[in-house]
Every structure is written in C-alpha cells, then in structure tokens.
Amino acid sequence: MDFKDLEERIDAQIKAAGINIMYDEFETYDPDVVFIRENKRPLIVINIVSDSDVPVVARKAHELSHVLDGDGSAKSYQFSIGFKNNAERIANRGMVWRLAKIIYEDIPLENRNYYDFMDWFNLPSSFEIVVNEVIREA
Questions:
Q1: Which of these, 42, 67, 93, 98, could form a disulfide with 61 (CB 3.0-4.6 Å)?
Q2: Are 15 and 68 in contact (CB under 8 A)?
C-alpha cells in the first residue's frame, strides 16, 4: 500500500486540529511522543529513526488520537502499540478508525479485509477484534 496520500490526509487532520508536529532523530528504541501543553498547541514528536514496525502514518494517527480522543489526564504520551491501559486502548482504536475512514471511504463493506489492514500496518494479533469492528464502522 502506498502511504503517501494517506499520510497527507493524516497530516491535514493534525494541522486542522491545531497540533504542531516535528521530526527528529533519537535512539532507534525511543518512541514517538505527544505533549499536551497548557496554553500552547499540542506537539507530536516523530522519531524518524525509530525501529518500530508500525509505519509513521499509523504512529501519527495514534498520537493524534491521544490529543483528540484522550481524557486529558496525562500531559504526555509515548507511542505504544499495546493495550496496556485505557489511554492506549483509546489511541489505538482512534488510530485504526482514522486510517480506516480514509482507506475505506470508497470501498463497499463486503470488500474490506481486516487481515490486509493489519498486514499494511504491521499490527499484532491483539488488534484483530478492534480492526474487524472498526473497518465495518468506517
């Protein structure tokens, strides 16, 4: 799958939400981070040398979901593909929803395959239920 158009659409959502984004090089094991700042625009920081198997576009959608869908209880979030807490469950579901909404906007329900979606974004099997549900709603 070509992520160029998808990433442009996610970037447009980030911009429309008034979120700043920056790209930097950290250690390969350092995650992307989003900062929720008082009286300032939120900031997403993408580690361009991350060793994550999850494509940058999905990581951006995940961090965007922390800002738009989160409960505001934390001031920063580090990218995590797991479902270890409620904030990550919300962000992961939001990530899948935002990506699926774009990818499947012109694709009939019967032609949507959640296995393909999981493969495109290198999502672990723990995402099966969420992805299957969300691509039917998108």
A1: 98
A2: no
